[in-house]
Amino acid sequence: MSGRFLFPADFVWGAATSAYQIEGSPLADGAGPSIWQRFAHTPGMMANGDHGDVACDHYRRYRDDVKLMQALGLTSYRFSINWSRVLPEGTGRINPAGLDFYSRLVDTLLEHGIAPNATLFHWDLPAALDDRGGWLNRDSAHWFAEYAEIMFKALDDRVPMWSTLNEPWVVTDGGYLHGTVAPGHRNTYEAPIAAHNLMRASGAAIQAYRAVGRQQIGVVFNIEPKYPASDRNEDVAAAARAHAYMNQQFADPALLGSYPPQLRECFGDAWPAFPASDFGLTRQKVDFVGVNYYTRAVVRHDPVQHPLRASPVRQPNRTYTETGWEVYEQGLVDTLTWFKDRYGDLPLYVTENGAAFYDPPVVEGDLLEDPLRVDYFRRHLKAVHAAMRAGVNVKGYYAWSLLDNLEWSLGFAKRFGLYHVDFATQKRTPKASARFYADVIASDGACLAP
Ligand code: GBH
């Protein structure tokens, strides 16, 4: 048995989910509606008319789902909290039943030896706050800090790892620039404002944590390396713009206290003059950073694409997943090393990594074979190890996702789960990738060696 792919004994092995994608019962027990509740019930927004009213029914089946986590051997579980369960109007009045759901989930995880990793915001803003301008309102930083402090006071004695935001880029690019996710706006002027307020909110929540929290807090970014399609100057510059927009627009204000210059160049008039004093708020000491990695992009200059003047180029003879994303594990090595080079030697977690592929029909008693997903996980776990050998401080890995779930506006058809979910019966069936991941965890990665 080669020791080449052995991970340290304290390496965190996890799986991730998010509230609106799995919980169902979005209005149960006094919860208020979120913008995803609203968006998913707006005709035309969701593939196949899908919505999160039931999803994986995790709100009622969470005890069974924790057993599935235990069967994998997970040492940590990353979930998100639906803000409007706890604060139905987003601020002010607390709904004790909503708080209690997360308290029971946390206790159940701990009873099964699984460390809770809680994300405060995975895109489901309370609808009542959207009615007050949502992330375009500068008060959003205070609203978020108020909610965060309530959660810290309720759960920090039992939750060792917190994140403020999941993937703010998706919120602003999809939610404010292109309208593909909630709240569904298409406005070049709004996107940078929402982005800035999200990072002010993250900073305000971290400040609140330093006053009342005792464990670890960080923030989670989606990072996707951008490689130029050729070595021509215009393609190199296009890749740099795409990189600044997706990978630096959020991490730079959080970790360096500034924005990369390409953003002003792309947004022009729509780039606001942000008060210099805001960067003291955005830049807070974090205990770790979470990196969500799925794919890379190869980018060319494309003058008609507003605002980036850049387009992705499809690569011939490569494997693409069912969401159209290239399988490219070297991008994870490059991402982790880039992060360390730019932002310093912070503890990093891969907080999401996974792939949608079509799975064969479930046959009772047979293992559900998903060889492309197994291959995806194998390649990316080796890539994590390669980054660690190159000196990056990666402390854990979370597979996306524990369960097939609501893939946002793409609906239930795109399946990322280690466990297959039959959405008609709620039956969970392990895929071969679940067995593979359990073997990786049980062997500390030794089974990855050829
Ligand atoms: C994550 O977002 C989310 O956190 C999670 O909720 C979601 O279910 C999961 O991933 C799977 O989607 O090739 O030009 O289309 C993913 C963020 C950003 C990753 C866009 C892929 C592809 C760009 N994604 N990116 S493109």
From TrEMBL:
Q: Which InterPro entries match?
A: GH, GH_1_N_CS, Glyco_hydro_1, Glyco_hydro_1_AS, Glyco_hydro_1_beta-glucosidase
Per UniProt, which keywords does this protein have? Answer: Carbohydrate metabolism, Cellulose degradation, Glycosidase, Hydrolase, Polysaccharide degradation
Would you say which domain of life the source belongs to? Answer: Bacteria
| Annotated Gene Ontology cellular component terms | cytosol
Q: What is its EC number?
A: 3.2.1.21
Q: Which residues does UniProt mark as catalytic? A: E167 (proton donor), E352 (nucleophile)
Q: Which residues of the sequence carry a binding annotation for substrate?
A: Q21, H122, N166, Y294, W400, E407, W408
Q: Which GO terms describe its molecular function?
A: beta-glucosidase activity
Provide the reaction this enzyme catalyses: Hydrolysis of terminal, non-reducing beta-D-glucosyl residues with release of beta-D-glucose
Per the UniProt entry, what are the Gene Ontology biological process annotations, in alphabetical order? cellulose catabolic process
**Pfam families reported in the protein's UniProt record:** Glyco_hydro_1
What is stated as this protein's family in its record?
Belongs to the glycosyl hydrolase 1 family.
**Protein name, entry field:** Beta-glucosidase
Organism, by scientific name, is Dyella thiooxydans
